[in-house]
Design brief:
Mean pLDDT: 88
Oligomer: single chain
Number of domains: 3
Helix content: 55-70%
Order of helices and strands: HHHHHHHHHHHHHHHHHHHEHHHHEHEE
Radius of gyration: 26 Å
Shape: globular
């Protein structure tokens, strides 16, 4: 009980140190740059060089309709990388995590009536749980945008002034251009506020809902201000809830409590629900009830859904627990001299910058693909021009070879390979059938006439290729005890 009491009365100087925990976790998660970065860099480079594509330009497939739904994020990543190298991609998520801590803290302070200890604890917990999402991917922007939206909505609710809502169309514009598939989430998160607004207007005979009714059409119409107009807006409806994607993309699978990541999801949910179960001094608001209920469904539907639960279901606890903490003006703050304050600030800066300096000086940030060695060999010894290579490669690694300028069979942009999006062929379904052994080897090879294949030993094609006289293994590389890759070339390449 003594420790709990201390937690309730910590000074601002001491609670500030808690912010180091989520920041350290974000640093750890970004020591190895996410594998999706390759196709994102490719997107950014293409837009800056050629404009916005409507036909997919990086694969061996022809005439695939294409919506580059993350074009804005790709441009930002490519600009940073081309100007400052891999450390820009390391520091960007770190900067975004600091913003997320800030906006979460502001939201909690608003709801808790300036209980800074409570606001600090909740904000740190949220960003700590979010840390594995805060990487160099478009979601680092969309999560921050949605957190900002929730702050704006809570500020509107607190002040009953329409002015904070004016930023919502701006957020809509940013979201559709940075991460279009997340655009509809802004309306999903707004629904509980709309429901409670209608209920309160009915109960009190007011009409505050008019503010929402005025801004919602503007917010929606702003979504058309993107290079793909309606196609970007409707992209999510043809890209999610598809078995072909869910079978391959780990973050789209249903959380399994027997897996560490699944346990992580259920733990984050349990903290919220146990808080409501065992603390009964406050009533839950209608909007917070629907936010928690709706995002719980999303979190239990897929690993990716956990991020929505974290940003929408934790900050209401600041309102729920506010009476267990004293506001700042009722807490006795220790008196410190200007010298002590400056020394404290300098120590905090040193403690924050020292590990980052060590990481940079020792080149501890990794941005390397497993197939880099095989790709280098292929480019140097293919025997044909890079533009003439027709490459088979697996789903996870195709983004890297395409970044190196080799047109490939598939890459991590799963939704691009759905017929519902490309209007030509269900390539994702074909790939899944191939890896399950449901597609006949010779039929597949005769369809594409690959000049080269870069395959892992665990790939379904590997044992067939070793026995196929039409292909010759020209290179092999062992990555670790469990992973090795080989490059196969078509035997008649000299005749091309």
């Amino acid at each position: 009980m003594k420790y709990i009491k201390n937690m309730l009365t910590l000074s601002k100087k001491n609670t500030f140190l808690f912010f180091a925990i989520p920041i350290i976790l974000v640093i750890i998660h970004n020591l190895s740059i996410n594998n999706d970065i390759w196709f994102l860099l490719n997107h950014g480079k293409y837009v800056l060089t050629n404009g916005f594509p409507t036909i997919e330009p990086f694969t061996i497939h022809e005439n695939l309709s294409f919506v580059m739904q993350q074009w804005g994020s790709g441009v930002i990543f490519y600009r940073l990388f081309s100007s400052f190298g891999k450390y820009a991609l390391f520091f960007l998520p770190l900067v975004m995590s600091i913003y997320m801590l800030f906006i979460s803290y502001k939201t909690c302070m608003l709801l808790s009536d300036h209980r800074y200890q409570l606001s600090t604890y909740i904000s740190c917990l949220v960003v700590a749980f979010l840390s594995h999402f805060i990487v160099a991917r478009p979601q680092v922007f969309s999560i921050a945008i949605l957190m900002t939206e929730l702050y704006v909505l809570e500020k509107y609710w607190k002040e009953k002034s329409w002015k904070p809502l004016l930023i919502l169309p701006v957020l809509s514009f940013l979201l559709i251009n940075l991460h279009a598939s997340m655009w509809w989430m802004q309306f999903v998160l707004m629904l509980p506020y709309l429901v409670e607004s209608v209920y309160q207007d009915y109960k009190k005979h007011t009409f505050h809902t008019k503010h929402f009714l005025f801004l919602l059409p503007i917010q929606f119409l702003v979504g058309f201000l993107n290079p793909y107009t309606i196609d970007a807006i409707t992209y999510v409806f043809t890209s999610y809830g598809v078995d072909e994607i869910n079978n391959v993309v780990g973050e789209m699978q249903v959380p399994n409590i027997q897996h560490p990541n699944g346990l992580y999801v259920f733990l984050s949910i349990a903290i919220v629900y146990l808080s409501y179960m065992f603390y009964h001094k406050e009533k839950m608001t209608l909007r917070h009830f629907f936010l928690t209920l709706g995002t719980t469904f999303l979190a239990l539907s897929s690993y990716k859904g956990q991020c929505y639960f974290l940003i929408a279901s934790y900050f209401p606890l600041a309102y729920y627990f506010r009476n267990s903490f004293l506001p700042a003006n009722k807490l006795k703050q220790p008196t410190i001299t200007t010298l002590h304050r400056n020394v404290y600030i300098i120590c905090c800066i040193v403690l924050f910058t020292l590990p980052l300096t060590v990481i940079c000086m020792n080149n501890q940030v990794s941005m390397k693909s497993e197939v880099e060695g095989c790709t280098n060999y292929l480019l140097e010894h293919s025997g044909i021009a890079k533009e003439d290579i027709i490459l088979y490669i697996d789903y996870n690694n195709g983004g890297y070879t395409e970044y190196r300028g080799i047109k490939s069979y598939i890459d991590p942009r799963a939704e691009v390979f759905l017929k519902a999006n490309n209007h030509e062929k269900d390539i994702m379904k074909e790939y899944n059938r191939l890896q399950r052994g449901d597609l006949f080897y010779e039929d597949f090879m005769n369809t594409y006439h690959f000049t080269h294949l870069l395959v892992a030993k665990g790939d379904f094609l590997y044992p067939y290729l070793e026995r196929d006289s039409n292909y010759t293994k020209i290179y092999e590389e062992e990555i670790n005890d469990k992973t090795s890759y080989a490059v196969f070339a078509r035997s008649d390449l000299s005749q091309i």
